[in-house]
Amino acid sequence: MKSKGWLIYRKQDAKQNNSFIRWFIEEAQKQELSLQLIMREEITTGIIHNKQTILIGNKPVHLPNFAVVRTIDPMLSIFLEALGVKVHNSAAISEICNDKALTHFHLNKLAIPMTDTIFLKKGMKLPEDGPAIPYPIVLKEVDGRGGQQVYMIQNRREWETSLSAVTSNDMIVQSTDSIQSGKDVRVFVVGKEIVGAVLRASSTDFRSNYKLGGSASWYPLHNNERNMIQSIIRYFDFGMVGIDFLVTIDGSLLFNEIEDVVGSRTLSAVSDVNILEKYVSLIKSTV
Questions:
Q1: Which end of the chain is less enclosed by CB atoms within 10 A, N or C?
Q2: What is the fold, at CATH topology level, of the domain defined by 117-175?
Q3: What is the pLDDT of residues 104-139, one digit of tens each?
Q4: pTM higher than the cut 0.85
Q5: Strand-by-strand arrangement of the 240-248 sheet
């Protein structure tokens, strides 16, 4: 009997990722897994009659063997795991990697090089002369993704303006000293394997995201870079993630963030690597 799984998306994201979803389901079929697309909006979780319960369309449902959660929802992942469903990425990975401050905290324990980073809460009283690191700085909401909720700040006036636009209670502020603007490296990881790396660049924006108009090219990792990435991989129990690094003026890499719900547009654009074949194989080995 085939192991059954849910591929969970929010409706809007599912529309934007239709081809990726079809590819995912086809790869699962090739490897004798049954994968069903489930919209997050259809799922109800809660305690009903003193029992942890999941409903689909407000009706009882047989739970799958595994779930691939392609939306940022750590509580959903925790709930599924509590009911015996194997979740990819795990609830622990979802919780850490979707909080930029928490991610930097963990990566610092591994002595991974990173730019100066300050953790702040909205509403905190700030020193009159601004943050503890000099301008220009970058302000990020800890739960932002895709280059959204990110602000380049040159002075105190822009700092105050950006703070008024922030919707999250938690933020990080980062130094831009020695960083090449509009350039980063994304490393694609499946399980314990480095699948490949892509250099993303933009000549019009300090953000290099492909969705925002940046370009992409294959990036050959050096041995010291691979060793650094392997130390991250050993620490975490990844399913499929993207580990992003800023590029300094001298070309070295500084840790930036880990993308939990990572796509593969850039990797597919610059290589013939079938990352979903690898990911489905990993999922199959766990169920």
A1: N
A2: Dna Ligase; domain 1 (3.30.1490)
A3: 999 999 999 999 999 998 877 766 666 889 999 999
A4: yes
A5: 215-218, 193-201, 179-190, 240-248, 253-259
